Structure formats: C-alpha cells, structure tokens
Amino acid sequence: MAAKMTAPELMDFLETVFPQVKDDFEIEEIDDMQVRVRMKIAERHLRPGGTVSGPSMFALADCAVYMAVLAMIGPQALAVTTNCSMDFMRKPAAETDLIADCRLLKLGRVLAVGDVLIYSEGVAAPVARASMTYSIPPR
Amino acid sequence: MAAKMTAPELMDFLETVFPQVKDDFEIEEIDDMQVRVRMKIAERHLRPGGTVSGPSMFALADCAVYMAVLAMIGPQALAVTTNCSMDFMRKPAAETDLIADCRLLKLGRVLAVGDVLIYSEGVAAPVARASMTYSIPPR
Amino acid sequence: MAAKMTAPELMDFLETVFPQVKDDFEIEEIDDMQVRVRMKIAERHLRPGGTVSGPSMFALADCAVYMAVLAMIGPQALAVTTNCSMDFMRKPAAETDLIADCRLLKLGRVLAVGDVLIYSEGVAAPVARASMTYSIPPR
Amino acid sequence: MAAKMTAPELMDFLETVFPQVKDDFEIEEIDDMQVRVRMKIAERHLRPGGTVSGPSMFALADCAVYMAVLAMIGPQALAVTTNCSMDFMRKPAAETDLIADCRLLKLGRVLAVGDVLIYSEGVAAPVARASMTYSIPPR
C-alpha cells in the first residue's frame, strides 16, 4: 500500500482545514504507512527554562499520526483522535526542533493506530513515545 | 490528609513558575486529594468550527493533576509528567469553557497518579477522560 | 438508559461464551452504565508472596467493562477490546478478593469506553485503575 | 550499554522467582536494550475459537519488558509494573505461538519504559502494541 498524497499536497490540504499547522509543522518524509514530521519550535511551545511543553509534544504526536493517516487514505478532514497514550521520558533539549517518527501499525476500516517516537533534533535518545488511535468516518 | 495550599496560594505560585497558566485556568475548588479546574476557552484553544483542540484538553488535564499534587505537597515546581493516557469521547460544545474534575488516586513518595474527567460546562456527559502520572523529585 | 440484563442473565450468557468466567468472577451489582464485579482469588491468580498478578487484574478490568457493555446492549459475544490503559498503584492485599467498580463513560454506536477502579476487598485505597475501549460490531 | 545476563541466566533466575514463567515463555534473543520472547501457546491461553486471550497478551508484554529490564540491570526480583497501555489491533492467528519484540526506550534510575510489538508467529502485521513502565527499587 503506497501513500496517496505527497508532502506538498498534504501540507496544502492541512492548511485549508487547520491553518495553524503551517506555522508549527513541516513534513520531512512520507513513506508507506510512515511519516517524519518536524516541529519548528518557537517561543509559544516553550516552558520557562526553554524546554518544550507537554501540550506541544502532544500536538506533534497527534498531528504526525493524522498526517500518516491522511497520506494513506487521501484528504478527509473528519478523522478524529479517540485515544492517546504518551510516555515522557527525557527533558527535550532547550530551544531545539523536535522530530516525530510515526508508523501506522493499523489502518482499518474504522480505526487507525499510530506509534510515534519524538526526538530533540540531533539527540539519539527519544524524549517521548506516543500511541494514538484515530476513528475514521465511513466514506 | 488535607490540602496544604488554598486556591489563591496555588494560583500565585503557578503564576511565578508558569506565567501562561493565569490566562488559561481558574481553580474552582480544592479539596482533599481533588481539584476542579476551569479552562477559560479563547480563540487560541479552538479548532476550525469552534471546538476545543486536543492539545488544549491535554493541557487542562495535565494542569489539573499538577495542581492537585501541589495542593497536597506544597509549592514544588519540579514535579514532571511521566505518563498520560486520554480517551476523547465526545466533541466539546463550541466556544464553551471546559471543567476538569481531578482526583488523586495515589500520592506516593516518588509517583502520583491522578484521574481527570473533562466536561463542557453545563453538559452532563464527559468529553474526555485522562490519567496522568507525575514523578515527584526527592525532597 | 437502563440495563437490559440482570446479573443472573448476564452470568448465564457469559458462561456459554466464556466458560472460565464463572470460576473467576461474580457480579455484585448491575446498574445503569455501571457494574461491580468480584474476582474470586484462587491460587492461579497469585504471584509468589500471595499477591494478585498483573494479568489477573487486567482480566478483571477487561471483564468488568465487557459486562457493563453487555448489560446495556444485551447479549452480543462479539464486542472486542481495542485499547487498554492501566495504572498499578498499590500491592493488592495477600489472598484477598478483588472488587472492580466499573462505569461506562461512553456507549457509542461503534465504541464504548469504561473506567475501572480495582480494590482489595475491605481496603479503601485502590490497587489499580484501568480504562478500556471496546469496539462494538454493527448490529 | 550491554546486557548483563544471557538468556539461560535470565531464565534460571526467573524460574526461581516466577516458577510459572518457564511453561509459558522462551527467550529467543537478548541484545542491548532489547529482547525477543516467545509465548508457547497452550489451551490455558485461549479463548473459545482458539484465539489468544487479552490477559495472555498482557502477560507476554509485561514479561518481555521485565526480562529486558533484568537483562540490563541484573537479577532483581523487585521491579514492579506501574503503568501499561495496550492497543489490540488484530485477532491473533488460532493456536499459533506469539512473538514479542521489546525495546527499552528508557532505563533510568527509578523508571524504565519498554515498547512491545506482539506478532502471531509467521504473520507480518502485529496483533498488539504495548508500552510498560517499571519502577526500579533503589539498590
């Protein structure tokens, strides 16, 4: 099963449905059932001390799985997150972009499950792990 | 075991360590091992269509558990989230404040676990459920 | 919305589809969107030292949510667990029955979400917390 | 960081602390921060229809992370599971051994986090995904 959308097509679609996505995220790579997404860290993502906030990491994981699902099924704004689990394992490097590596483990008729590892760019040990379930509306 | 901080004391402390908290959250009630927190919904919390975003709900759940922990152990900025699981069950009402009801289920020497139900104000069925684990630094 | 099955009806149904259930579980109470289930602790549920094993607590949480769903929708063997999150907070009391208090937080057309607190009988602080999502097959 | 225990050493240790492990599990491979574990499926792991039960898959994931932690830190019976999240994505193949691939994502002073993918032997798509947190007692 190959991706149905290229990175530019996906970003164009996301900008029409979630305009804020463009400022925060960049697709580094799309492949069969996987995407790599960069979070362009700015002041609004930081906690005092310069570390990236939990809600920003949640947003990155959520967006990465959404992008991976859309890349495979084509532009459908209505997929929604139904479940998330995250482990926050290390403090992100200060003022450094985050990179999310997402694999879809399941792409069913009604549910998709994606797994995400989040890294501070240039650091080998992951800062967080996430799993997200998306509910896909009937077509 | 009774709360060690009142709502105003807790808000004062949070404003010094997380200045953005004041704009987003209000403590409705503090009790033994539980807090009720209001998220004052503004444009920045919304998705197109007026519904509250996932990262905003994560931020509310995370903050509610943090507040419940601090209320019990006193002002300690260094407690960090290590794990989170959330179920997103219903679409929040458009442009309506969210209310988080948080209970601490465990307050150990090194780990605290809190359970959160999130409601759109005035609506009986919860929009989301969250569990958060905080790691508490040695005193 | 009221329960469609009584405790004896539900146990009878479960025995035909999961014969082992009868040895392990007893329904203490069924109500609108909630059940209380007893796990009759026996040798096979224990770890060395007499404490209840993790898989046994998982089985109890899973079964409690399944029972709560069936009580509401009627006998349907095909609902399946799609997601689970658990926090193990305290060591269960040795050789003591466990009691699971389960509330359904959502009972949708395709997904049901239940929340469970597990106690050692007679002990106030919960030993574990669980959330389970069930996928309900189209009728 | 290299593993401190070989597969036979680890199995010998586990048999003294959890005698039932020997009947259910076999270590296929131990490496730096990762293990592969086989669950030898028997009647007691099955649901009617021949598919492996949820509690059995939980037991496999839990045991795989425990083994991965012990392999790295040496024989310490007292590490305990504090959190688990699982996604059940596909029905396991009937009466087929399960293989768990576990990676430790974090091995800290007090907490370890492991990620597990579970497969029916010989089938490419995973049946389940799990993350487990272990609390490691002070040495």
TrEMBL record, chains A, B, C, D:
Pfam families found in the cross-reference section: 4HBT
Keywords from the UniProt entry: Hydrolase
Location of the Thioesterase domain: 49-122
Name the record gives this protein: PaaI family thioesterase
Keyword Hydrolase in record: yes
